[in-house]
Specification:
Elements lengths: L12 E5 L1 H10 L6 H10 L4 E5 L9 H10 L4 E5 L3 H10 L3 E4 L19 H13 L3 E6 L3 H10 L3 E5 L1 H8 L3 H20 L3 E5 L7 H5 L4 E6 L1 H10 L1 H20 L5
Parallel strand pairs: 1-2, 1-8, 2-3, 3-4, 4-5, 5-6, 6-7, 7-8
Helix pairs in contact: 2-3, 5-6, 7-8, 10-11
Length: 262
């Protein structure tokens, strides 16, 4: 489904995930480093939004962190959560700008794949209805598969976030033929999702080395990046890490679509 480039409209947004600031804090059980401080620094460094995943086991972000982020941020909060009754109640209490539904397994180190919307279509349609009624923009984190995208559109999601982890993994392993195939699949499914009227985001595992090809997709309007930026901040500082990522995203847009596009 190779589609010709269409010129994007508006700036490509960067959402910075601050989960692993909380991971470092929780390793010692104290109050430092503070995820809200990191979020505010991310905002001043060029982030257009902040992402935080409140896991059922509270392994990093906590309920108190969500309280602080909701009251302390001036950019939108993207609240990642599993599709459970507990998380729905928390989301409805806070009414964040966006709610992103993700799969969650207690034994996993990080989110391993996209949500299987096609298998749980009826349940998820009923689950997201009150969130939409409360004014939250509902996003679904899914693999770049046509059946999952179609199911996300049917249940009433307004946004999908395509899982870029497989692309990043094979790049890191220098399996370049597979990397190019994954990238082509992401490109085609971005165009397909946009054709259904869905807003397209992407994220998971993106680094300085892998971000530009995805940032060049005209249909993608937001990238969510976290673990790499927090790790890179150890060496260069969070402000520098975010500004470099922001610059690479903007360069990809200009190189693909010409001056004046970022």
């Amino acid at each position: 489904m190779n589609t010709p480039h269409s010129k994007p409209t508006g700036k490509l947004r960067l959402g910075v995930n601050i989960d692993h600031v909380a991971t470092v804090r929780n390793a010692r059980g104290g109050a430092y480093p503070d995820p809200l401080r990191a979020a505010m620094l991310a905002e001043s460094s060029g982030a257009d939004g902040i992402t935080a995943h409140l896991r059922e086991d509270r392994r990093h972000i906590t309920d108190t962190d969500i309280d602080a982020l909701m009251s302390g941020l001036s950019v939108p909060l993207n609240f990642e959560m599993a599709a459970t009754d507990e998380m729905q109640k928390i989301a409805l209490r806070h009414k964040p700008h966006a709610v992103c539904l993700v799969p969650e397994k207690r034994e996993e180190r990080t989110t391993e794949g996209g949500l299987d919307v096609a298998r749980e279509e009826n349940r998820l349609a009923h689950f997201i209805a009150p969130l939409r009624d409360a004014g939250c923009r509902v996003s679904i984190f899914i693999a770049a598969e046509k059946r999952q995208i179609e199911a996300a559109a049917r249940i009433g999601a307004v946004v999908i976030e395509l899982h870029t982890g497989a692309y990043c993994d094979v790049h890191a392993e220098r399996r370049f033929e597979e990397r190019d195939a994954e990238l082509e699949r992401l490109r085609d499914m971005s165009a397909f999702a946009a054709s259904l009227g869905l807003e397209v985001h992407a994220g998971h595992g993106l680094t300085y080395d892998t971000v530009k090809p995805v940032a060049a997709f005209p249909e993608v309007v937001e990238l969510n990046i976290g673990h790499f930026l927090i790790g890179e901040a150890i060496f260069s500082g969070l402000d520098s890490a975010i500004r470099r990522m922001r610059a690479l995203m903007d360069d990809a847009r200009r190189e693909t679509f010409g001056e004046g596009v970022a």
